[in-house]
Structure formats: structure tokens, C-alpha cells
Amino acid sequence: MRYQQEYRDPAAARKLQHAIAEITTRPWSIMEVCGGQTHTIVRYGIDELLPEKIQLVHGPGCPVCVTPLELIDKAIEIASRDDVIFCSFGDMLRVPGSHRDLFDVKAAGGDVRVVYSPLDALKIADQNPNRTVVFFAVGFETTAPANAMAVWQAKRRHIDNFAVLVSHVLVPPAMEAILSSPTNRVQGFLGAGHVCSVMGYEEYEPLAEKYHLPIVVTGFEPIDLLEGIYRCVRMLEQGRVGVDNQYARAVRRGGSPSARGLMDDVFQVSDRKWRGIGVIPRSGYRLREEYQRFDAEHRFSVEQLQVRESETCLSGMILQGTRKPSECPAFGRECTPEHPLGATMVSSEGACAAYYHHGRFREATAMES
Length: 369
Prior knowledge:
Layout: H1 2-6, H2 10-23, E1 28-34, H3 35-43, H4 46-49, E2 54-61, H5 63-66, H6 69-79, E3 84-88, H7 102-107, E4 112-114, H8 118-127, E5 132-139, H9 144-156, E6 162-169, H10 171-179, E7 188-192, H11 193-199, H12 205-211, E8 214-218, H13 222-238, E9 242-245, H14 257-266, E10 267-274, E11 278-287, H15 296-299, H16 315-319, H17 351-357, H18 360-368
Parallel strand pairs: 1-2, 1-7, 3-4, 3-5, 5-6, 7-8, 8-9
Antiparallel strand pairs: 6-11, 10-11
Helix pairs in contact: 2-13, 8-9, 9-14
GO molecular function: 4 iron, 4 sulfur cluster binding; carbon monoxide binding; iron ion binding
Family: Belongs to the HypD family.
Pfam family, one: HypD
């Protein structure tokens, strides 16, 4: 396809590689926020094309990975009920809970279904009025509009056997949590383009000013990322602060007003726990009071369920950018895609999965031997 190849052109990549090398005079640590960007970086070896002075740090931009352990256990408890049809995107089914995952529930006879849209789950609810259909509403701001639409339609159409288990998290508060940490080493960000296509990038501007650093909104193809890195390094070298938009073909400063309006109608901002990180204030969404009857946690009385994270899994450090997956002692040994300890090894956007599937596990093993 023309537009795909345009952003994967080897000659353009080499040109950007040389341009980055020419302007780099100091060591810089840049975090890509999105797990999709991490997979592109690892798949195409973008980090290996960069000057040694530039280090790419992987951020918490995988919503599956940051879904807290107790919410997985809540999903498992709800999905195990005979009167429930539990619907989810496929990447949530293998995320480990305390003792099992949603695939185990399905194997034991639970009605767990993979859907491709929350509106598919709403349709199932409409077709099965005698059972409660629960959709696992996971994601950043990117998936929130569709999930909000499903709840809005359920209320409007009086489909009261529909509910959502909400695990929506917001990117800017997570970035601020990283920047305010005493262990922070991030000097610039590559912003998640798909999130900004919904929300815009206005809310990133105060963050850039407060912490005196550049944020470059970036796409997901190799050329997008190399250009985003080039723009970020140029701003760092020049001492410039602010937000730059590399992904102008999809992102506007104000985002999508219609999507944001729908989200504001259905959701309200709340504190949210992130797996491996802890509670980040005002970093997530929950349903507004007028939509509470569609809240699965409230409907099935599982709000108070609390569990303890694995002490072996270092996914929290990986999500905060203080460790690389290959630096985890369990990586590729006790923790594999077939037997994962944490969600970062399972999710299609997880950093551990990216390292494992694109050969970084073999490299780490070779270095040890």
C-alpha cells in the first residue's frame, strides 16, 4: 500500500538516521509512551540505529499491561457466573490473575466471548435478555469513545442487562507520575499519536512547561518514529520546551470534539490503580452516577476485592522505564508467552512480548553466556 510503504522507506530511514547522528552531541533519554510504538521500535531495530548517546526508554503505554491484578480477578469472578456472558477483546483472555486467567474460565465452561467492538457486546445483550452481558472496557483515551457509546446506547435503548467492567486509564497523569518520581531519567517524550487523535495535545503543553522538556506527538510507522526522535533530539539539543506534532496527518491540537463530548457525558475522571505502579491520582475514568446501573463492579458487588502483586515480576519497573525486559531475571525463563508472570509478556503491546518475539531474549541469553 502506498501510504504504508511511504512510512517504511529504507532510504528515508537512513536519511533520518544520519540526521539524528549529526545533531546529537549529548546523552539523552527519550521515552516512547505507547506500546505500539515499542513494538515498532523493537521489530525494526530502530533503537539499534541510533547513536549510543540516545537511549529509548519504554513507557507504560499498554492498557492491558497496566490493568491492575484485582481487576483481572474481578473479571474472572464475574465471568464465572452462570448468568453472565462475559465479552472482551482477545488480548485480555491470557492476562494472568492471581491464580488463573479468563481462558481458564472459558475452559471450565464459562461463557467468555471474544468481540471486536463494545457494540458487538451490546448486540449480544439485546439478543440475550435473560442473561447479563458484561464487556471488559479496557484502554486509554483511544478506546473510551466506543465504550462510552455502548453505555450511552444501552441507556437510550433500555438494554438493562448490559454492563461494563471499566479499566480506562489516562496518559498525561502517568507521564507526570514518571516525571515526578525520584528515579526518573526521562528527558523527552514521544507522545502516543492515537491517544492524541482523540484528545488532542493541549493537555500536554502545561506538562512540558512544568517539567521543562519536549514532547513530540508521534505516529507508529518506522519513519514516524525516526522523525519523532529527530524532532525530540533537536529540541533537547537546542534547549527548547513544548509540544511538537509529528503526526499532523491524524492529530489536531483540540482532538475530536465529538468524541471528547461523548466521553465527558458518560465518564468522569477518577483515581485509578495501575498494575505494578500503584494508584495515580485522577488517572482514569469511571462511569458517572447517572450510568451507575451499567457498572459491573457495582452490579456484582466486587468493588472491595484486593490482591497482592507478584514479587517476582518486574513489570512495574518496566512500565515506569527504570528496567528493560531483558534485565528481569524471570524474562524468558519463569516468564514466557506460554507461562506469563505479568501482562507485559502477554499483551500485543507489551514491552516484554516485543522483546521476546523479536529476538531480544536470545540476545540477553547470549550476553549472559
